[in-house]
Amino acid sequence: xxxxxxxxxxxxxxxxxxxxxxxxxxxxxxxxxxxxxxxxxxxxxxxxxxxxxxxxxxxxxxxxxxxxxxxxxxxxxxxxxxxxxxxxxxxxxxxxxxxxxxxxxxxxxxxxxxxxxxxxxxxxxxxxxxxxxxxxxxxxxxxxxxxxxxxxxxxxxxxxxxxxxxxxxxxxxx
Length: 174
Known about the structure:
Elements: H1 156-159
């Protein structure tokens, strides 16, 4: 499916199947993709502001440079996806599967990552200022040069085997 540059503003595509679709540069502001299959889709540079992506399967998708400010990814699966350089300000990833997801250089300012599974995620150079990581599983996550929220409180389980190399953890409780 080719949806490159498509305007999908306020579209309702709940439970739709966009498997392997090319949505490069699409404009999907205020769209509802809840429960949709978006596996292996290309959303590079797309606009997903305030979109509903609850319970979507976006595993192994390319969302690099996407703008998804205020988007809702609650219970979504983004395993192995690329969100490098994405603007995810104030987005919600509550209980999302973010296993092995690439957030390198992403802006997660004020993002809700409560109880998210971030095992093996790459958060190198990510901005997590004021993000909520309560209950998040960061086992094996790479946080090199990441800007972390204040105060940072990680349980022993959540902090085991993390790469915090050069992370900004000043005045943090680790």
